[in-house]
Structures are given as structure tokens and as C-alpha cells.
Amino acid sequence: MDKILGIRLKRAREEVSLSQGAFAKALGLSSEYISLLESGKRTPSFETLLKVAGFLNKDIAFFFGEKKPVFESLLTGGAIDERARKEILRFRAYCDKYLELEEATGRRLDLAPRYSRISPERLADEERRRLGLGNEPVRDIFNLCEANGLRIVRHPFPEESRISGIFVFDGERRAAFAAINAAEPPGLLAQIAAHEYAHYLKDRSESPIVDNADVVVDEYVSLYPPREQFAQSFASAFLVPPSKLRELIDKDFRARSLGYEDVLYLKRYFGVSTRAMLRSLRGLGHLPDTRFEEFFKRNPEDREAEVFGGASGQEERRGRTLFRKSRARAVPSDRFRLLAAEVEAASRKAGDKPVSASKK
Fold first, then answer.
1. Cα separations (Å) of 280 from 54, 96, 150, 235, 267?
2. Low-confidence winner among 7-21, 266-280, 329-343 (lowest mean pLDDT)
3. DSSP labels for 276-326?
4. Which residues neighbour 146 within 8 Å (Cβ) at sequence distance 6 or greater?
5. pLDDT at 322 over 50
6. 166 strand-pairing partners
7. Would you tell me which CATH number, out of the four given (3.40.190.10, 3.40.50.1580, 3.40.50.1820, 1.10.260.40), belongs to the domain 2-66?
8. Which residue has the higher pLDDT, 235 or 162?
9. CA 63 – CA 20 distance, rounded (Å)
């Protein structure tokens, strides 16, 4: 039993790209003790195992027995409240229906390559190169994820659940899914989708992963396991390539200081939230801390409406409140709707009673 625990502990540590020393330091243990655990020569106390499992975002059962079916593991987690559990059951039904549609149409998605031992910035560059994106903005992150094997649904989760996204990889069916909390504004939705895409590219064996709302906020992500920091850094570099941001600033803004309206223009260009753009600009040295703090406190919606005609600002406001004020249903992906329409057309042609895609 200790040998199995040690093997799984080592695998989990390596998957978050931590050395024994760094892992031990993060847990307040010695590297010698971690080495003994991984070699099966020492059995951890229950308290230590809880600490290790919590840091790696693992169920304790992972270190001992066979892995549970992915949704069973997700639904039996103690951190999931009853209302969120009901929404996860709906998410599971969506996943099952999606695979049924793929089976009926013969259009099964292939998995993207899996990466390991790579920095988030390099992964963003490598994936952009693989997809032929260059350094241009990702115009539709949701369809891009789907075309590369990560099926996405924008799903309403109760506000008190604090869920921003869920990543699930079903190893038996070799299928990946992500539920993005539809209650968030459009710019943040894109950030969450890219965050889940990072889990898909690098953390499949960690599935399921439930992301708290704070993991997509740079001020709080450092409080979470290294994989969340990795996914957040990947999302920023993938959605806002530093080379393109520098090119735009050098070409159009030149040496002058960036104003608030310039930030709004750039965030619209890349399709991200205002705060995500502010962080990217500060990180690249294009925005001093004092101006960052000043701009960060502002509400962008009204000024954006004044300068750019209001559409995006109105979307931000509407996106933030849409699902919090209603019990709206999930928003299926474009590809799901396409497959449903194809199945419906085939049923109609065969003389069967058609089934509305909205009921699927």
C-alpha cells in the first residue's frame, strides 16, 4: 500500500512541475521526508495526507485505490453544495448527450496533444504555433477550444457556489469537457475558458477540477495550487500575446503614456476583460503601478459606452447579471447545436418525429 501511495504521490508532484525540495517547502515538510514517502519507505500520518491531498487538490482515495468514475468523484466531493450539485448533474447530462450526438453523426473530436514540463508562457506560444494563430487575437475562444477537443458549455452556477469553471476528462471515453459559469461578463468568460483549456492541455490526469472564482483573479491565484497559477498565466499569454501587445503600442501609441481610453481600446481588440488588460499592461511595463491602481478602481462600462458606442459595455453589464437574476438554462456550444441539427435533419429525412434542439 505504501508503494502505491508513493508512486501516486510522485506522479502528482511531477504533474505540477515541482521538485521534491519545492514541494516539501510548500507543505512545511523536509525533502528527505517526501523522498521517503515517494519510495514507499514511510507512511504519512492522516493529518499529513490531508495536507498533501489539499495542496494537490486530490481526493485522498486517489493515493490508495482505483480512481472513481469522473463524475462520481466530482459529485461526492464534500465542497459541493446541493444547488451546485444539481447543476453538475445537468452538466453531466449535457456531456452524455454531446457524446451521443457525436456517435450518431460519426463526428468524434480528437484530443489535442498533452504537454508537461513546460512554462505557461512557452505553452501559450507552442499552442498558438500549433494552431496557426500567430500573435493575432483569439476571436472565439469557445469554438477554438471545441475544434481542438475540449467541449464547452456555458452553464449557470449559483452565486454562492463560487464556481468559475469545471474541467472534466473522462478517461474511459477519452473525452474532455468544461463548464464555464455563464453568470460572468464576456471578457472574464474568455479568461475562464482559456484557463480550462490550460487544464485540458496539461492537467488531464488531475480531472475533475473545480475552479473557484478567485483562481481567475491574479490577486488571489497565488493562494491556490501551482497548477492554477500555471493555468492563469497561460490564459493571459494565450489571449493577449505580449509580442502583439507591444507591437500595437509601439505602432499606434508610441512613446506617450497610455490613457484609460487606450486601455479600453486594447481590451476590446483582444476580447478580454478590462482588468485582465490592465494586468497585462502592468506586467509588460507599459503601465506604472500608480496608474494601474487608479484605472483598476474605475467602472469601465459607462466610459466604454461613451467612447465606443456602448455595445461592449452593455454586454459586460448584462453578462454579469443575466443568470444571477434568472433561472436560465445552459447555453449549448455552436458545435453541439450543429450536431443536434444534423441528427434532427436525419430523423426528419427518415420519417421520424423531429426533436427540437432546444430540448436536448
1. 30, 38, 26, 11, 10
2. 7-21
3. HHHHHHHHTTSS-HHHHHHHHTS-HHHHHHHHH-SHHHHHHHHHHHTTTSS
4. 109, 152, 333, 334, 335
5. no
6. 179, 210
7. 1.10.260.40
8. 235
9. 17
Residue-level pLDDT at 356:
53
One-letter amino acid for residue 42 of the chain = R
Q: What's the CA gap between 79 and 317, in Å, rounded? A: 29
Pick the most confident of 98-112, 179-193, 208-222, 254-268.
98-112
- The pairing of strands 175-181 and 209-212 is unpaired
Neighbours of 294 (CB within 10 A): 12
Q: Which residues belong to CATH 1.10.260.40 in the chain?
A: 2-66
Given a cut of 90, whether residue 354 has pLDDT beyond it is no
Cα–Cα distance, 81 to 86 (Å, whole number): 9
- Cell numbers representing residue 64 in the block: 490508495
Each residue's pLDDT tens digit, 258-289: 999 999 999 999 989 898 899 999 988 999 99
Cα separation, 147 vs 289, whole angstroms: 39
**Greater pLDDT, 110 or 217:** 110
Q: Are 102 and 109 in contact (CB under 8 A)?
A: yes
Torsion angle of the four alpha carbons 18, 22, 25, 30, in this order, in degrees rounded to the nearest 10: 100
- The helix or strand, by DSSP H or E, that contains position 176, with its residue range, turns out to be strand 175-181
The predicted pLDDT at position 213 comes to 82
Higher pLDDT, 121 or 45: 121
